Amino acid sequence: MRITNAYCIVTSPGRNFVTLKIVTDEGVYGIGDATLNGRELAVESYLTDHVIPCLIGRDPHRIEDIWQYLYKGAYWRRGPVTMSAIAAVDMALWDIKAKAANMPLYQLLGGKSRDGVMVYAHANGRDIPEALDRVAHYQALGFKAIRVQTGVPGLDKVYGVQSGEAYEPAIRAPVPEETLWATEPYLDYAPKLFEAVRDRFGWDLHLLHDVHHRLTPIEAARLGKSLEPYRLFWMEDPTPAENQEAFRLIRQHTVTPLAVGEVFNSIHDCRELIQNQLIDYIRATLVHAGGITHLRRIAALAELYQVRTGCHGATDLSPVCMGAALHFDSWVPNFGVQEYMMHNAETDAVFPHAYSFKDGYLHPGEAPGHGVDIDEELAKKYPYTQAYLPVARLRDGSMWNW
Ligand SMILES: O=C(O)C(=O)C[C@H](O)[C@H](O)CO
Ligand SMILES: [Mg+2]
């Protein structure tokens, strides 16, 4: 089998997605997600200008060799643009291999380790009562795990809180939106939120919370400690993780479980966090961390230290990433949970998929490959529009972490 053609499809059914399609001489094709929120065209150019010309004529079954070629062959290693491009190729090649074998991808990875993939939903409210209503909504849908975020008194816009029906932080505009952040009111308010959630819903629900990189290590330690009575499933990204050592300080003060890594793109970003058991869940996922070939190395390292997976699954990762991740999640021995934000109807129509939700679990389906396709004609109806994640500043105007 040979690769005869490959190209990117950029589409925007509500938000921007970059998809790679790899076509072979035997008519089998594979699909990979290459979306990097706010930097979509950089990955598209990396693939189109620098990667695709090197793929033509290669044997698509040689997934490991192609991965190594793209990683080592560029000389410049790692980084989100490079690793998202490699991930797209890798996902598409695994799709081809599984389709050629006439098997769902999880079978090639080693078969299922579980009957369903537990997923968590996002309950977002402008205040505590609204957040509680959203928790009730997702619990009624059958979710066993729910992430809860609220607005903070005195702050106009806060990460994770929706102004309309669907939460979409990447605003369509030529430059990022500016938002305001203040740590003190947040640290006071977050425990009140979880006290209210436990009061109303009891203990038979996994609760998660995303701090979105906004605290210093000692502030994160304080928050983890103040959330202990509410027994969170995890506290996510409490502080930026470039300095992996910083998590030692948080760990010394709290037993609230920690989840980190949605912005990571290689095993080196989380090696110390894992080897020193400074986290409980690793959030890296396929599209930003080099695809299945690389994520399974990360998971294997994590397994040695009883760190479990908690793959990123926000809506800026396309259904292609979600579908492939569900095969990975079905197989990976040290699975923890999968994020599931749910795409809008337009996105689901552009990306027909085999996965389905039932009673708090997602199932990858039995279609050969990863089970997600792209309707290229429909995709053309939604042209790319510039959109960026917001930035955050403190009250004195200093730049902060969004
Ligand atoms: O889903 C999460 O946990 C996130 O933090 C979502 C991110 O803000 C989003 O994916 C950025 O593109
Ligand atoms: Mg997050």
TrEMBL record:
Entry-linked Gene3D superfamilies: Enolase-like C-terminal domain (3.20.20.120), Enolase-like, N-terminal domain (3.30.390.10)
Pathway listed: Carbohydrate metabolism; pentose and glucuronate interconversion
EC number(s) per entry: 4.2.1.8
GO biological process: amino acid catabolic process; carbohydrate catabolic process
Mandelate racemase/muconate lactonizing enzyme C-terminal domain span: 129-257
SUPFAM superfamilies listed in its UniProt record: Enolase C-terminal domain-like (SSF51604), Enolase N-terminal domain-like (SSF54826)
InterPro entries: D-mannonate_dehydratase-like, DgoD-like, Enolase-like_C_sf, Enolase-like_N, Enolase_C-like, MAND, Mandel_Rmase/mucon_lact_enz_CS, Mandelate_racemase_C
Coiled-coil regions listed: none
Gene Ontology MF annotations: magnesium ion binding; mannonate dehydratase activity
Catalysed reactions, semicolon-separated: D-mannonate = 2-dehydro-3-deoxy-D-gluconate + H2O
Family matches, as Pfam families: MR_MLE_C, MR_MLE_N
Cofactor requirement: Mg(2+)
Keywords: Carbohydrate metabolism, Lyase, Magnesium, Metal-binding
Entry similarity comment: Belongs to the mandelate racemase/muconate lactonizing enzyme family. GalD subfamily.
Protein name: mannonate dehydratase
